[in-house]
Structures are given as C-alpha cells and as structure tokens.
Amino acid sequence: MQPYELFIGLRYTRSRQRSRLISFISLISIIAIALGITVLITVLSVMNGFQHEIRTRILDVAAHVQITGPDDVVKDWQTVAASAEKNGEVIAAAPYVSQQALLMNGSAVRGAYVRGVTPEYEDKVEEISRHMVMGSLEALKPGEFDIVLGVEIARALGVLVGDKVTVIAPQGQVTPAGIMPRLRRFNVVGIFKIDHFEFDSGLALINMQDAQKLYRMGDDVSGVRLKLNDLFQSNHVVRELSSQLGSDYIVTDWTQQYGNYFRAVDIEKRMMFLIVFLIIVVAAFNIVSSLFMAVKDKQSDIAILRTLGASPGSITRIFLIQGTLVGLIGTLAGVAAGIALASNVETVVPILENIFGFKFLAKDVYYISELPSELRSSDVLLTALFSFIVCVLATIYPSWRAAKINPAEALRYE
Asked: Most buried among 104, 139, 286, 308, by the most CB within 10 A?
C-alpha cells in the first residue's frame, strides 16, 4: 500500500463532503454497527450468566450423580456408597428417601417432593445449608418429625419456624373404614431459599429415618447421591459406576436429569446470536450505500488521480480504507459499550424495572428472578471479529466499482 492511499482514504473520511447525506449515512452506519455489537455482547453475556446461575442453583440442591434401584429402592446403601466412593472423582456420598406428599396447614394445601436426608451426609453433597434463611438443616433430628421447607411452600402454607404442618403420604393404610391416607404432624424447623422457583415451591426436607417410617421403607432408601470433584466428568463417572455396580442399579447424572434446561439455553443463545448479528449485517449495507454515494461524489477526484498515474488498485484501496475505518470505529464503539453494559446489567435492569414497572424475569416462569450476566472474552473477540469482517466485505464491491470509473467520462462535464 502506498502512503498516499492511506492519506487520501483517511482524508475522505475526515473531510466534510459536499453531500451532507453521505456523512449522515456514514454516521448512521457507525451507530447501527455499534448498537448491534453492544446488544450482541450483552445478550451473549446474559445467556452465559443465566446458564451459570441455573446450573449453580440446581446443583446446590441436586446431586452430580445419583444411584437408584429399579423401583427407586436401594436395600444396602452403605455398600453402594462405599463402592461408589472408590471412584477417584467421587468426593462424597449421601443416602436419601424421595417421595411425593401433600403438605397442609389449615385450609392451605400444597404438593411437594419430600426428601428424607441425613444432615451430616447431606451437607457433603449439596449446599442447602448456606441457603437457609430461617433455622438450620442440622435441626432435622431422627424421631422428632421435623421438616425444612422451601420459602415459597412456607409462604403458601402461611407457616414459619416453630409452626406445624401436616404431611399426607399418598400410600394409604387399610382400616375397617376403608383405605385411609397416612397423616403425620411435622414441626417446621427451617426455611431455605435457593432462588430457583422449582425447588423453593416444591421441595421439603425431613430426616431420613422419619421418611423411612412415614413411607414404611424399613432400612431401605430411594438411592445414593454423589458429589464429584469435577461436575463435568459426570458422564464418565456414570459409565464407570454402571459397569462397576451392574444392572441392578440405575446410575444417572445431572445432565440427564436437568439437561433440557441447558440445551434450551444453548439453542436460545445460538438463535439470539444469529438474529442480532443480522442487525450488524444490515448496518454493513449502510456502508455500501455511503461508499457508493461517496464514489459518485468523488468521480472527478478519482479521474484526476487516475490521470496522475494512480492504478485501479490504488483507487480501490482508498475507498477500502474509508469504508473499513467506518466499520472499525463502529466495532470499537460497540465493543466498549457492550462491555460496559454487560458488566453492569445487574445495576441497569433494576432501574429499568422501576421505570417501566414490570419484572423482566418472572421467577415462576424463568426459575430465577434476577437477570445475571457473565462476560466472556471469547464472545467479545468473536463478535468484534465477525462484525469487522462483515464491514470489510461490505466495502469491497463499491471500492471495486470506483476503480472502474473512466477518467475521460468523469471529467467530461467538469
């Protein structure tokens, strides 16, 4: 590239052109590219944050790997747990009993999954203890028939720590008057808040021995929950344990139980990337329009340069520089704005919610109530790279057309 090509290309970009419309279209192109990149970086960051938050909150309650029997019954859980803990990735194991039940307080009735746990084991495989807003998980003493509720269940039933709820087991008992449901009064000793609507509104914890008595399971349990050193090795651990334990046990991991959430977010992320990226493509067409108009406006200048010895390639590079500079300014501005907005989503969204008077994320629909954000450098770099490439490609044809101008024809009416 000759120095004069860069000089003229930059001068054309800075100078006030005779047609204000050309400058206006160039400005609109820069703004449109910047807005498109800003939105795209923000959307990708929010999707990343949403996926991370959902995974974190689910795995605070759900196990990385779960071992059950064919009928959700495991008879000798100690042996199963000891066998599983021989795997190098398994760092903790805890037995559990899981059944459905109705919870009742006065006229208020709610369905829930009742999980029987042993607090000293459960603390090693999940993080419910750090989500307790009232009481504690350690208060679940065997034989005391205590219960810990999700905050939404407690609110629906109108109970606090120290109140009582009636647990109705679906398995009935035969009496002379017919089949009657089994009822048991439980003391509320704790309330947790995961900020995940499915668990806050549908999970109750009781001591495992109390659950075995309530559901008449004897010494059996529903299964064994495992915590791994690396949760992303769960598929590998499932294969190893399935081979090790044999066909008498069913081994599943968190990706099988909750994989639909994360697949849905991945699909939405790809589609949002495509949709928003089209905004940048449309903005790039504005560059084409502005360059065509600039070429028309500069025909006499192009003809003079050609008569002075400038080659068609030089003319092409001059307008390539002009269009590329527009794309570069828009890309840099969009990246800066996108990083700033994505880094402050948690601050901006509450302000907008107060202004417009509605929640962007209803927790009963989206499982979480806050809009999270996780800015990744790879997303920023790819967005900037793809956008800049599109802008450069948009300059090629009008720049090529500028090189095809006939000097004699251009100067005929000058």
From this structure: 286
Contacts of 385 (CB under 8 A, 6+ apart): none
Q: What would the two tokens of residue 11 be?
A: 């001068």
Alpha carbons 79 and 66: distance in angstroms, whole number: 15
Instruction: Give the side-chain half-sphere CA count within 13 A for 264.
Output: 8
pLDDT tens, 46-102?
Answer: 888 877 877 777 777 778 899 998 888 888 899 999 999 888 889 999 999 999 999
Instruction: Report the percent of the chain where pLDDT is more than 70.
Output: 81
Count the residues in the chain: 414
| Helical (H) or strand (E) element with 299 | helix 299-307
Tokens found for residue 380: 């920023």
Mean pLDDT of the chain: 81
Phi first, then psi, for residue 87 (nearest 5°) are -70, 135
Judged on CB neighbours under 10 Å (0-12, 13-18, 19+), 355 is: exposed
Model confidence over 279-328: pLDDT tens digits? 778 777 777 777 777 767 666 666 776 667 667 777 777 778 877 888 88
**172 three-state secondary structure:** strand
Distance CA 227, CA 90 (A): 6
CA distance 142 to 227: 24
Taking the C-alpha atoms of residue 44 and residue 266, their distance in angstroms, rounded to an integer, is 10
Give 370-391 pLDDT, tens digit per residue.
677 888 888 899 889 988 888 8
Token pair, residue 369, equals 């109530």
Spell 143-178 as b/e; 16+ CB within 10 A means b: eebbbbbbbbbbbbbebebeeebbbbbeeeeeeeee
Instruction: Extract the runs of DSSP E, i.e. beta strands, from 237-357.
Output: 250-253
SS3 content of the chain, % helix, strand, coil (to 5): 60, 20, 20
